[in-house]
Write a structure and sequence with these properties.
The protein is α/β, with parallel strands linked by helices. It contains 18 helices and 16 strands. The strands form 4 sheets. It has an 8-stranded parallel beta barrel with strand order 2-3-4-5-6-7-8-9, surrounded by 7 helices. A 3-stranded antiparallel β-sheet has the order 11-12-13. The longest helix is centred in the last third of the chain and has 24 residues. The structure holds 3-methyl-2-oxobutanoic acid and zinc ion. Pathway: Amino-acid biosynthesis; L-leucine biosynthesis; L-leucine from 3-methyl-2-oxobutanoate: step 1/4.
Length: 515
């Protein structure tokens, strides 16, 4: 009989650690809602001890979705972190405390500067403490793939005896290669099944050598019961194993792995697009499963073969990952039902009737102006509508602007609002965007540096919406900002302000009380 593989999604924890991918509470809730539709078994919702904002987001996710999906959050092996996790996830029906502590020599010696025995004892004490709070505890042996095997096993044995119910073996720095990692999992699995066959063996792979998917699959072949992944492979540095790749490999090659997941694969593309839109981090066009070209066949030979029989060049169909009917064309006459369906298909929640009605009125205004409304336009509507609450927190808003461009003095004049304060100014620059950003920088008085500026067209037609994605550097941290508008100068100004507002929110969160 094929084994069920448990899928933990860590997009909201490891994925959100990507510089510039910071999500606000509404965005995290939208993603969690879509992860629930995708039917992941466990959502890792954040790292509650890291900030008050993260604590609140985890708590909200546990309260909202904890009745139907297991919720976990990360703690270091210290009581204050474990308390923060417990307090934030306890409302869920199946809460799981996730503790991480290094096992490699380099972690033990350089990070902790303690003896191996002392570090192991820290882990055991942490598990014992967590078990006084909740029955389910996962222990991650950070940097396991570079650890001395016997010490790694001694740690696993000790924390299992202390009550850990899941052992997670991370390839933290993406150093492993598939046969070696598979072998490591097989050896641990053999001993673990003898020690306590109820304990679940899990893996968590990073992609520094581009091997995260291959290593995860090799682990499944060698006995792993659970996999940790992220949507679009987001995560520290080169990212984590991509959920869509691992899940589809298990589905397409089920007989080879003799294992399956309960992921609703038809939700994969929608989930990927939602994460792309909310984080502003695009997937490469040739990315497996969810890239724009993943199912595009361009050469004549391939097209000819496909017309004869799809299986000639297709190992899975676009429908399997939800690629059919992604493009929606709505008009002002489409009505509430069609619009609601379109919003939900993109992974957004519509259960708040009052909020939906406001959104529908905005849709009618846009449809009157644009005639044809495409899926990207709907995304624009929903995401801009749902970020309104941030402006209530006294952040910067664009009131009006004028940009004059010529090859002598490109000039921008901008009026901003911050609560009841109005700020006005003009600057010249090397070009229109440089002038625009110079005046905004001067008005907000923050020493930010523009690191990246990208503009794409989001939909077809002459009223196509332009999406601007930018990254700024402020006090050593990267913040991203996105905005969409039919006027690309306005989108550029709003993207910059969104990034600045992100930095301000971060400052506010840091000044808020620590958990
Ligand atoms: O990469 C890692 O080791 C982690 C652990 C917290 C599982 O993210
Ligand atoms: Zn990780």
């Amino acid at each position: 009989m094929n084994r069920k593989i448990i899928v933990l999604d860590t997009t909201l924890r490891d994925g959100e650690q990507v510089p510039g991918a910071k999500l606000n509470m509404h965005q995290k809730i939208e993603i969690a809602q879509q992860l629930k539709r995708l039917n992941v078994d466990i959502i890792e919702a954040g790292f509650p001890a890291s900030s008050q904002g993260d604590f609140q987001a985890v708590q909200e996710i546990a309260r909202t979705f904890g009745d139907s999906v297991s919720i976990t959050a990360l703690a270091r092996a210290v009581r204050t972190d474990i308390d923060a996790v417990y307090q934030s996830i306890k409302a869920a029906q199946n809460p799981l405390i996730h503790i991480v502590l290094g096992t490699s020599n380099i972690h033990v010696e350089k990070k902790f500067n303690r003896s191996k025995e002392a570090v192991m004892e820290m882990g055991v004490e942490a598990v014992k403490y967590a078990k006084t709070l909740l029955p389910y505890v996962q222990y991650s042996t950070e940097d396991a793939s570079r650890s001395d095997f016997e010490y790694l096993w001694k740690t696993i044995e000790a924390v299992v005896k202390a009550g850990a119910t899941m052992i997670n073996v991370p390839d933290t720095v993406g150093f492993a290669v598939p046969d070696e990692f598979g072998d490591l999992i097989r050896r641990i699995n053999d001993r673990l099944k003898n020690l306590n066959d109820k304990v679940i063996l899990s893996v968590h792979c990073h992609n520094d050598l581009g091997l995260a998917t291959a290593n995860t699959l090799s682990a499944v072949k060698n006995g792993a019961d659970k996999i940790e992944c992220t949507i679009n492979g987001l995560g520290e540095r080169a990212g984590n194993a991509s959920l869509e790749e691992v899940v589809m490999a298990l589905k397409v090659r089920e007989s080879s792995f003799q294992a399956y997941t309960e992921i609703q694969t038809k939700e994969l593309l929608r989930t990927s697009r939602l994460v792309t839109h909310l984080t502003g981090l695009d997937v490469q066009v040739n990315k497996a499963i969810t890239g724009e070209n993943a199912f595009a066949h361009s050469s004549g030979i391939h097209q000819d073969g496909l017309l004869k029989d799809k299986q000639v060049y297709e190992i899975m169909s676009p429908e399997d990952v939800g690629a059919e009917s992604m493009e929606l064309i709505l008009t002002a006459r489409s009505g509430r039902h069609a619009f609601k369906n379109a919003v939900e298909k993109m992974g957004f929640d519509t259960s708040d009737n009052e909020d939906f009605e406001q959104l529908f009125q905005k849709f009618l205004t846009l449809a009157d102006a644009k005639k044809e409304v495409y899926d990207h336009d709907v995304f624009y509507l929903v995401t801009s509508h749902r970020t309104v609450s941030d402006t209530e927190k006294q952040l910067y808003e664009l009131e009006s602007f004028q940009v004059v461009t010529n090859d002598v003095y490109p000039t921008a004049t901008v009026k901003l609002r911050k609560g009841s304060e109005v700020l006005k100014g003009s600057e010249v620059g090397d070009g229109p965007i440089d002038a625009l950003y110079s005046v905004i920088k001067a008005l907000v008085g923050m020493d930010v540096q523009l690191k990246d500026y990208k503009i794409n067209s989001l939909s077809r037609g002459k009223e196509a919406i332009g999406r601007v994605n930018i990254r700024i550097q402020y006090e050593g941290k990267t913040y991203s900002g996105r905005a969409m508008d039919t006027d690309i100068i306005k989108a550029s100004a709003n993207a910059f302000l969104n990034a600045v507002n992100g930095a301000l929110l971060d400052d506010m969160a840091k000044q808020g009380s620590a958990v």
